[in-house]
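Training component of the fellowship. As part of building independent skills, the fellow (R.M.) carried out the full modelling exercise for a liganded target. The chosen ligand was manganese (II) ion. The inputs are recorded below so that the supervisory panel can assess the work.
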Amino acid sequence: MGCILASTTYEEQFKNFLKKNNLKFTKERREVLRAITIQRDHFHAEDIYQQLRKQKSNVSLATIYRTIPLLIDSGLIKGTIYGGERVVYEKVYNKPHHYHMVCLNCGKIIEFICPDMEVIQNNICRNNIFLSTEYNLEIKGYCQDCRRKMMNEKKEQKIQ
Amino acid sequence: MGCILASTTYEEQFKNFLKKNNLKFTKERREVLRAITIQRDHFHAEDIYQQLRKQKSNVSLATIYRTIPLLIDSGLIKGTIYGGERVVYEKVYNKPHHYHMVCLNCGKIIEFICPDMEVIQNNICRNNIFLSTEYNLEIKGYCQDCRRKMMNEKKEQKIQ
DNA sequence: ATTGTAATTGAATATCATTCTCAATTACAT
DNA sequence: ATGTAATTGAGAATGATATTCAATTACAAT
Ligand SMILES: [Mn+2]
Ligand SMILES: [Mn+2]
Ligand SMILES: [Zn+2]
Ligand SMILES: [Zn+2]
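Fellow's submitted model of the complex:
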């Protein structure tokens, strides 16, 4: 289990944040943090809980929910997709800013980077004297696979 | 109470949608629809309920929640801002597509139009063979007023 | 106008992600 | 080692939204 190398800086970042705010670096917080470094791109609060149970850790869901805002404020994760039944989070530390396409049929999330968009957004904020902390672009629709499936279903209907 | 002129096309649109789907144009649905035409830019489900109570209408909250998806599917409203405690809706019929800045301090919502962004989004969807039904850009941050207030508070702290 | 029937309604209840309460425990500065 | 404020888990609370069900209603066909 020697795969925690990359998380060292994660942990440093988190520790610094906690110290700065008179908060304690507890066993539970460390375990939540590590569970997150293991998660793939996008995850729910519940995913962290399941991850920890797999690892025989007994951190409660309450503590996970209490830790999430700390991880957000320390710049390690952020809430990405709202409006479903539960919030989707993702790691942001050392990851380039990007946007999302969400398939309404299969739920797939497609990421994309768009420097042009960033420029436009900065201009808009400057023009409106608005201090932005977060840009969030979400394109909802249907992915390539689902479009294919839907077209095939239509064909079959016509044949019958 | 002769101020329902502008809602005629709203009502037509809704009636057409309902007929197309074997749904009935009930007294309650008409009242919800009219309550919505009266709402200002952005509103919650609860706002509709309050509006109707003011007008001595007894449409239940359950019916309002059941009517909202119908209004969305008929192209009259859409959910705009998620992630707060409740969903923010807005009218979209005959309204140009636009984006939002949300102040994290006072909750103010600032709308803006951006044709350049639309072009970029269309390109991205084409490149990914993604069929978009909805673009949603939300910029979170702090509005001009709140920034002023925060700066003044800082000054006062220094003086004390 | 009457009738048949599927759609709709309000009231109450359920859902379910997230937050809160509180007594017991713990991190960590001194 | 000690003091104290922060933290924890368990369970209860919250609150927006969804669902159940028996009674009502819209409306197409007669
Ligand atoms: Mn992502
Ligand atoms: Mn708007
Ligand atoms: Zn898909
Ligand atoms: Zn503000």
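The panel noted the following from the submitted structure. Chain A touches chain B through 34 residues (CB under 8 Å). The helical segments of chain A are 7-20, 27-38, 45-54, 61-73, 115-127, 144-159.
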